[in-house]
Amino acid sequence: MIVRHLSLTDFRNYAAAEVALEPGANLFVGRNGQGKTNLVESLGYLATLGSHRVSTDQALIRAGQDAAIVRARLEHEGRELLVELQLNRSSANRAQVNRAAIKPRELPRYVSTVLFAPEDLALVRGEPSTRRRFLDALLGARSPRLFGVFADYDRVLKQRNALLKSARAQGLRSEKLSTLELWNERLVELGSEIITERLAIVASLEPFVREAYQGVAGSDQEPALDAVLSILAAHPEADDDADAPGESTRNGDSRPMLGRAEIADAFRTALERVARAERDRAITLVGPHRDDLLLTLNGLPAKGYASHGESWSFALALKLASAELLRADSSTGDPVVILDDVFAELDQRRRGRLADAVKDYQQVLITAAVLEDVPEALTAHTVRIEAGTIVESSTIAEDLA
Q1: Where is ATP annotated to bind (predicted)?
Q2: Which residues are annotated as a binding site for ATP?
């Protein structure tokens, strides 16, 4: 897939922007705060229905405006597609494909991107919620219908937590809550599907992560991934975003294949086990909303043991592996690889290795404050950004350090 043209209206600091993009590498250069990241953020939103920088849509709409519009003209195998999204401040967002209305959650069917940014260091060093969002975004990119499953699970979770809070306020025991069992079954049904899909994606992703890590870092270290499930924990009493509230699914070097029925049974058993604790705390203590992805390097947890360079390499490997996985099973071509202000964080050796890793993708978008940070092989089409204004150039732009 290639993005041929990107158009923004009242998105972030852009009142209006029109930029033509080319196959291969496209480099956006400009001093910090000029709007480089805003451009690639808009494309990332079309593919994932979220921003890598903020948790709500409101910050994406230019100050003083009621709506923002993102339009992208896509091309795949000679066929063109116009994708449009309107972000509204006080009403539901709207989307179109070739001028025909669709539900916004259907957009990822048409747009595929993998974005790596400095914030992604949190995949290694941050909280479990960051790693859960990473897995779910990848799952949604491969199967957009799962975005609906995630939304349904969140709604059920909120309803169940509200019921537990009400019961605590009224002094009711969980066994006397006639509707709790109904919410339990719905939670198990949706949660088991999410856990099953996450286990499958972790197993598929791991060999790509190993290859990508060794390619970027140039070392023989062994990265590994492992799902940590709260439904298997003996005492899942930790706070919502605390580390390792569950139990690993890996036994030594093997990972047992847990079927969906087994997961559902374990989920029901876990709910029974924590029923009293949930009543006391008025919160759902087990389920995919409390799971984690354990990242290890040579058998040790990357969080806490990996150096800064190793952590960067691991985070980058996760994103490169995602791109390879999407490329392997895509019917619409390669995902657009987006590298947002990444090269400044890497040493010269890793910069070169990263350039080699992405050079064969159909399209790569890069942002940088300093031109020299980016390997020359990725600077063929350079666009200069100044205060929300785009200046295109077919030659290498001057250094804007």
Answers
A1: 30-37
A2: 30-37
Buried-exposed string 92-101: b where 16+ CB fall within 10 A, e elsewhere: ebbbbbeeee
- Distance CA(133)–CA(286), nearest Å, equals 17
Q: Contact 98/81 with Cβ under 8 angstroms?
A: yes
Where in the chain are all domains bearing CATH 3.40.50.300?
2-112+330-393
Average pLDDT over residues 107-123: 92
- CA 50, 54, 55: angle at the middle one, nearest 5? 65
Mean pLDDT of the chain: 88
Question: How far is residue 301's CA from residue 283's CA, in Å, rounded to a whole number?
Answer: 28
Q: Position 221: which residue type? A: Q
CATH among 1.25.10.10, 2.60.40.10, 1.20.1050.90, 1.10.510.10 for 135-303: 1.20.1050.90
Q: Write down the pLDDT at residue 249.
A: 66
CA distance 233 to 267: 11
Determine the pLDDT at residue 34. 87
Q: Which pLDDT belongs to residue 177?
A: 67
Q: CA 94, CA 102: separation in Å to the nearest integer?
A: 8
Architecture of the 2-112+330-393 domain: 3-Layer(aba) Sandwich (3.40)
- Cα separation of 333 and 300, whole Å? 36
The answer to which of 120-124, 230-234, 292-296 has the lowest mean pLDDT is 230-234
CB 94 within 8 A of CB 86: yes
Q: Using DSSP, state whether 317 is helix, strand or coil.
A: helix
Residues tagged in the binding site annotation? 30-37
Of 187-191, 322-326, 377-381, the poorest mean pLDDT is in 377-381
Ramachandran bin of 143, using left for φ above 0, alpha for ψ from -120 to 50, beta for the remaining angles: beta
Buried/exposed code over 104-138 (b: 16+ C-beta within 10 A; e: otherwise): bbebbebbbbbbbbeebbbbbbeebebbbbbbbbb
The Cα–Cα gap between 83 and 76 comes to 13
Gap between the Cα atoms of 101 and 202, Å rounded: 34
Task: Give the integer Cα–Cα distance in Å for 239 and 60.
Answer: 31
User: Which band of pLDDT confidence, cut at 50, 70 and 90, is reported for residue 396?
Assistant: very low
Does the pLDDT of residue 330 top 80, yes or no? no
Amino acid at site 268: R
- For the chain, residues classed under CATH 1.20.1050.90 are 135-303
Contact 89, 61 (CB under 8 A): yes
